[in-house]
Structure prediction request, 392 residues.
Amino acid sequence: MEACQPILNTGLRGFKVATTNISDVDGTAGRLIYRGYLVQDLAGKVSFEEVAYLLLYERLPQKQELENFKKQLAGERGIPSEVIAALETRPKDALPMDILQAAVGMLAHHDPDTKEHSREAAVRMAIKLIAKFPTIVAAWGRIRNNEKPVEPDLNLNHAANFLYMLNGTIPDDELAGFFDTCLVLHAEHSFNASTFSARQVASTRAHMYSAVAAGVGSLSGELHGGANTRVMEMLLDIETVDRVEAYVNNLLDTGGKIMGLGHAVYKTDDPRAHILAPMSKKMGERTGKPKWYEMSEVLEKKGKEAFKQRKGRDIFVNVDFYSASLYYYMGIPTDLFTPLFAIARITGWTAHVIEEQFGGAASKPVLYRPDSQYIGDYCGPELCTFVPMEER
Prediction:
């Protein structure tokens, strides 16, 4: 019998499929770069709107450019009444990411730019989507609770406006600033699963909404988005700091995973985690419930120690670990954590769609079309002989 052909189920890990000048993830050094800037140099120092401008236009804006961009984004926050009406007909227990993906398709019906294949039209669609994602998520967060959606406040920045639309109250500057930093940290992360999905669809010359809908669908899978939701569920299950060590040991002894530890790319701590942790600590102090941060801190330490003892190698904290308690402190429902990811990552997705279709990877073939290796062996070395139904 001939030796079997090698299995090529690599999931493209380790393969470079295109060039980009949008961002870079150096997993060994623990560096995340947005168009040449370390994320640590941007987070807490520039607004989400500045980062969105950077990703779309390839440079940080001047003061007047930023003001104009903010006005443009604010002016696009509203969503058609027909979309709101459609959301009101959805089952209240529908998954929020499914709602978001469906809404993207509905928004396409109302945008004439879908009929124009140009960089200018793509940028206009990108700005509309960046502006409208928070409105969709906040609207659904209220509709499913039988509350009326809150209209956007054009005087608030992107981060503050989302919290206002979700909760109905204007957040203070510190709270809005923390959420703004979260958006900056999640805005882009190179060729992750959802970004690659968006680029693959964009390579067919599908319009922006189709590509973004693919990104949303990819992010909805639990192996990509949703980890911070499961981190918070883990913390809620543990309940108190004194139960952390036993929980970790039992989890690892039974083959479980410590959510928020480990990453497909980083071989050291995710740099974003070290920016999120102090904000979680501060929110614990603000709310008078420091235990969620304290549990996270102990869980990180004990988890790393136990993993090293059992596996003989290190494991590192990722972006989801401290964002879980931070969002929970903000009063955001856990099943909206992944949509929050999308509210930020829509900037990266749209930048990649524009790059895929209009520049930045000139040597790449127009259409993604990978090969596969067929290993079917249903009839031995020969082709199967077709047998009609009556003779089977």
Notes: The radius of gyration is 23 Å. Residues 203 and 367 are 5 Å apart (CA to CA). The mean pLDDT is 94.
